[in-house]
Amino acid sequence: MRLLKLTGLAAIALALGLTSALAAQKPVIKAEPGNPLGEIYSGYNMRDAKTQAMQDDDFDNPGFLWIEQGASLWDKVDGEDGKSCASCHGKAEESMKGVGAKFPKYVAAKKNIVNLELQVNDCRKLMKAKPFKYESNEMMGTVAYVKYQSRGMPVNVTIDGEAKKHWEAGKEFFYQRRGQLDMACSHCHEKYQGVHIRSDYLSQGQANGFPLFRLKWQNMGTLHRRFTGCNKNIRAQPYKRGSQEYLDLELYVTWRGNGLPIETPAVRQ
Ligand code: HEC
Ligand code: HEC
């Protein structure tokens, strides 16, 4: 694989053919102690100006179609008990503020870590309503809507106590070489961050914009879909969305972004 080392914004702008407008940059933040990245930044910083503009404008941002769907599902009565999310949680703007920033998290009753997708289906079970499929529009809309209530708030997942072993499993996954190309997540998203690869710029692989709209997908997508794609790119076996492997990986990857403002719904190429 050919990796072309580029340094600095000017080089990026040049390579993208952006002569007049430099791509916008969100702040680079000092990572919390123990984070191997030292400094963290959003994948937004590696995108071209057009994609960034689409994310920045709530009217242009296609992700808002899912936010709107999530908002109407929040109030929709479903299931045998005749309840909606609002029946138990009231207004999402109040009850869900800051909640998305703390997921995935350890839930004692499940003796496991839970991400927002699993939490939503646990609640649908309480409502005696059918679970949403992992990557259905209903699920992505609901999760995006919950996460959106924390937009601008810093990612803040906890990895102590019972969460620790899941964090460790996720870390092991992240640094494990795999697939025909024998590469780990860390090769692309730590060692070669900022490098140009197959007409894309490698970011730190942060989770703060998910679920997000991807132009290539022409759709919203979950973090686990992205994991699947990255695994396939190196011809490694992908895991199922919602699998224990990807849950642990989600906890670890999300933690690497502790402190980054939530950008849901982000837009990517
Ligand atoms: C029958 C009541 C009930 C309904 C209806 C319900 N939930 Fe919940 N929900 C709970 C309980 C109980 C908890 C766990 C206790 C807590 O953290 O508030 C919870 C927790 C959550 C959490 C995590 C909160 C946190 O602080 O960690 C989210 C997110 C959530 N629910 C979303 C939803 C969504 C979306 C819906 C609609 C699809 C929904 N809930 C419907 C009862 C309900
Ligand atoms: C061969 C290089 C490569 C490897 C290995 C790789 N990725 Fe990626 N990944 C990419 C590219 C290219 C993108 C899109 C550009 C970017 O944001 O880096 C991407 C994007 C992502 C994103 C989205 C970032 C954003 O802001 O939208 C996440 C999250 C991610 N990768 C996680 C992982 C994880 C976890 C692994 C290990 C299972 C992994 N990647 C392995 C190349 C790779």
Topology record:
Layout: H1 8-15, E1 29-30, E2 39-40, H2 49-56, H3 64-74, H4 85-89, H5 92-95, E3 105-107, E4 112-114, H6 116-126, H7 137-148, H8 164-175, H9 185-191, E5 196-197, E6 200-201, E7 212-214, E8 219-221, H10 223-233, H11 244-255, E9 267-268
Parallel strand pairs: 7-9
Antiparallel strand pairs: 1-2, 3-4, 5-6, 7-8
Helix pairs in contact: 3-7, 8-11
The structure holds heme C (2 copies).
The site of one heme C has 15 residues, from helix 4, helix 6 and helix 7.
Brief descriptors of the model:
disordered N terminus; three-stranded mixed sheet; Cytochrome Bc1 Complex, Chain D, domain 2; two-stranded antiparallel ribbon; mainly alpha; 269 residues; 9 strands; 8% strand; binds heme C; single chain; 2 domains
N-to-C SSE string, H for helix and E for strand: HEEHHHHEEHHHHEEEEHHE
Shape: globular
Low-confidence stretches: 1-14, 16-21
Q: Structural class of the secondary elements?
A: mainly alpha
Mean pLDDT: 92
**Which fold does the CATH topology of the largest domain refer to?**
Cytochrome Bc1 Complex, Chain D, domain 2
N-to-C span: 21 Å
What small molecules accompany the polymer chains? Answer: heme C
Count of helices? 11
Strand fraction: 5-15%
How is this structure best summarized?
This protein is mainly alpha-helical and 269 residues long. It contains 11 helices and 9 strands.
